[in-house]
């Protein structure tokens, strides 16, 4: 398969939710397992490693500067990741109706890009510290997709109005979007985790 990844099946059967774990810059496929386990103890988990290296640090797409993305690469990587999700769905017999991305920072940005360009492969996402990845020529129909954004009021990397714009894009596309503001910077806090866990619990019902 085309991405380095780690798969942990659900202990409770193959109909369970799968969390697709997408790390931040410099992370790897293992990073978000503890977080995901906390968010959804019974979910299957698929940790993926970004293929682009920036000074040796894995990422999911190239950037020209902090917050300035190489759009051509982003689009290419978005489709590449979508094909991987389809492949993994077959290989690991995932329930395609219940695949949620959980992304942090760079991983949240590519998850948002997948929702805009390849919406069929995800049911929704938890996006920690996401920003607008790109402005698609046309917004897709995201009706039925559930998205939780957790943004930091004092994030030095993601300006507040950028988070607001992303949330508006999801809303205009018809997604069920919740934007949650944390009294935090770019790093995650216990409060982020508590909010995300509650949101995930509602998904299971
Ligand atoms: C990005 O490059 O995706 C964002 O600047 C977030 C980051 O990875 O620092």
From TrEMBL:
Domain Dienelactone hydrolase per the UniProt entry, residue ranges: 88-192
InterPro entries named among the record's database cross-references: AB_hydrolase_fold, Dienelactn_hydro, LYPA1-2/EST-like
GO molecular function (one): hydrolase activity
PANTHER family to which the protein is assigned, alphabetical: LYSOPHOSPHOLIPASE-LIKE PROTEIN 1, LYSOPHOSPHOLIPASE-RELATED
Protein name from the UniProt record: Phospholipase/carboxylesterase
Organism lineage string: Bacteria, Bacillati, Bacillota, Bacilli, Bacillales
């Amino acid at each position: 398969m085309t991405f380095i990844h780690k798969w942990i099946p659900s202990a409770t059967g193959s109909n369970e939710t799968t969390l697709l774990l997408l790390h931040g810059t410099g992370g790897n496929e293992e990073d978000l397992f503890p977080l995901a386990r906390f968010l959804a103890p019974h979910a299957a988990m698929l940790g993926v490693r970004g293929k682009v290296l920036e000074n040796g640090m894995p990422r999911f797409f190239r950037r020209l500067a902090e917050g300035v993305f190489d759009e051509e690469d982003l689009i290419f990587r978005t489709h590449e990741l979508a094909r991987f999700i389809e492949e993994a769905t077959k290989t690991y017999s995932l329930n395609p109706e219940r695949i949620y991305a959980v992304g942090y920072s760079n991983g949240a940005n590519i998850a948002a890009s997948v929702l805009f360009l390849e919406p069929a492969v995800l049911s929704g996402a938890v996006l920690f510290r996401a920003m607008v990845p790109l402005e698609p020529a046309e917004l897709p129909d995201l009706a039925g997709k559930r998205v939780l954004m957790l943004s930091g009021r004092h994030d030095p990397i993601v300006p507040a109005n950028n988070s607001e714009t992303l949330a508006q894009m999801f809303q205009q596309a018809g997604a069920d979007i919740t934007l949650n503001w944390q009294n935090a910077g770019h790093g995650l806090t216990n409060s982020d985790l508590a909010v995300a866990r509650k949101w995930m619990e509602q998904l299971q019902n």
